[in-house]
Amino acid sequence: MSNALNHKPGIALGYRLQWEPVQECHVLLYPEGMVQLNETAAAILGFCDGKRSVIGVIADLENEYEADDLREDVLTFLHEAVERGWVRYA
């Protein structure tokens, strides 16, 4: 597991994270459509820049939101995001 924490997640090619005023939420745009994101998903994806490691994303989220123990939630989300093709690891 520790090796996976060193991977650097980034938004997959063909996807773009942006605020959608009409929807009043962040969305993930891709050629076939879009996915409306909840605040948590948008926050996690906002830190997935392909430069930070997974452990760095977790640490930055915990710092930004003054929260502890986000590791399992972030790992679960990233696993699902990779399976859906939204995130890739550098």
TrEMBL record:
<comment type="function">
    <text>Functions as a PqqA binding protein and presents PqqA to PqqE, in the pyrroloquinoline quinone (PQQ) biosynthetic pathway.</text>
</comment>
<dbReference type="InterPro" id="IPR022479">
    <property type="entry name" value="PqqD_bac"/>
</dbReference>
<dbReference type="Pfam" id="PF05402">
    <property type="entry name" value="PqqD"/>
</dbReference>
<dbReference type="InterPro" id="IPR041881">
    <property type="entry name" value="PqqD_sf"/>
</dbReference>
<comment type="pathway">
    <text>Cofactor biosynthesis; pyrroloquinoline quinone biosynthesis.</text>
</comment>
<protein>
    <recommendedName>
        <fullName>PqqA binding protein</fullName>
    </recommendedName>
</protein>
<comment type="similarity">
    <text>Belongs to the PqqD family.</text>
</comment>
<keyword id="KW-0884">PQQ biosynthesis</keyword>
<comment type="subunit">
    <text>Monomer. Interacts with PqqE.</text>
</comment>
<dbReference type="InterPro" id="IPR008792">
    <property type="entry name" value="PQQD"/>
</dbReference>
